[in-house]
Amino acid sequence: MNTQLQLPFRGWSRAEESSKHGSGGGKTPRIGLVLSSGGARGLAHAGVIQVLEEEGIPIAAIAGCSMGSYVGALWAAGLNGRQLEERAREIKDRATLRSLMDYIIPPSEGLIRGDKLRRHLERDLGDKTFSDLDRPFIVIATDLDRLSPHVFDSGVVSHAVHASSAIPAICAPVKLNGRRYTDGGASEPLPVTLLKKRFQLDAVIAVNVMPPPGEDEARSEQALMVDDKSTFHVLSRVFHTFWHKVNLLAYGNVLDTFRRALMAAQLHLIAKEEAAADVVIHPRFAASTWHDFEHFEQYLKAGRGAATAALPAIRELLQNTPTNLNLETISHEIAPSHTRMEYLAA
């Protein structure tokens, strides 16, 4: 399926969707939810979802990219926000994360295959297809052969999520139906426009967990290591110095440089897509890196805080017509804790 406007999924008629999620012509507007890429930061999506559930905010359709597709797939399959938090808490340390890595030797296509991570997802999804999901859901990956975003809306959901989450140069490309796919964040890290094209929606809430331009990830990574007292041991310092030289992902090394160059393009794409959303929820983190899944509590808290701050704007979506809405960007930052709001013309 390409990125052009398509009819809703087979088995989901407009009448069926309206009866489940409301209709643009009725009292309840049809609201879509977009979950961005962002690695471990994507755990904040679970915090946002918890608040939406607690407040009874109806979501008619979901789009997910990379980590957003992982969280979105579980939610679309019927897991609730608390169950999403339980899944996040499973990755309690780096050793647990490493146990899910299937390394490629030699690393010609990437550092890992990603099959273990897909099977981890399949504990909940099994072989469910998109038509088996409880909520309409699309996954965005990047087609390496066509050099364009690709929308998955049919087939096995876990395979689509695997393709969408295959971080370039880290994960090997995923081959499906004779084509090669990589991380959807490379082409559509916040797929607001694609969700709008695919479904009849009155408004879209976008959750962007990517760092803002200028955030110093190197300083963030050092901040995350402060609590690790072993780093102050002389032998540990020697080890970390050596490891920095051989670790291709370390700050300033080749894969880190590649990733940061890719992020520069992503942030420009995100800025355009945020302008197409009606409410943008942007959780902020005092210290974060894309791989620190063990700091799940920080991300969940940030997601909940940002979503809570956005509730007045979200409730406005439920009360007003789209033409009367403003684009509202909500940022919630942990340490120091404060909320910042910016209003832009719709």
TrEMBL record:
PROSITE patterns: PNPLA
CDD domains: Pat_PNPLA6_PNPLA7_NTE1_like
Active-site residues, as the UniProt record annotates them: S66, D183
Alphabetically ordered keywords of this record: Hydrolase, Lipid degradation, Lipid metabolism
Region entry Disordered, spans: 1-30
InterPro entries tied to this protein: Acyl_Trfase/lysoPLipase, NTE, PNPLA_dom
PANTHER family: NEUROPATHY TARGET ESTERASE SWS, NEUROPATHY TARGET ESTERASE/SWISS CHEESE D.MELANOGASTER
Protein name: NTE family protein
Species assigned in the record: Prosthecobacter vanneervenii
Lineage of the species this protein comes from: Bacteria, Pseudomonadati, Verrucomicrobiota, Verrucomicrobiia, Verrucomicrobiales
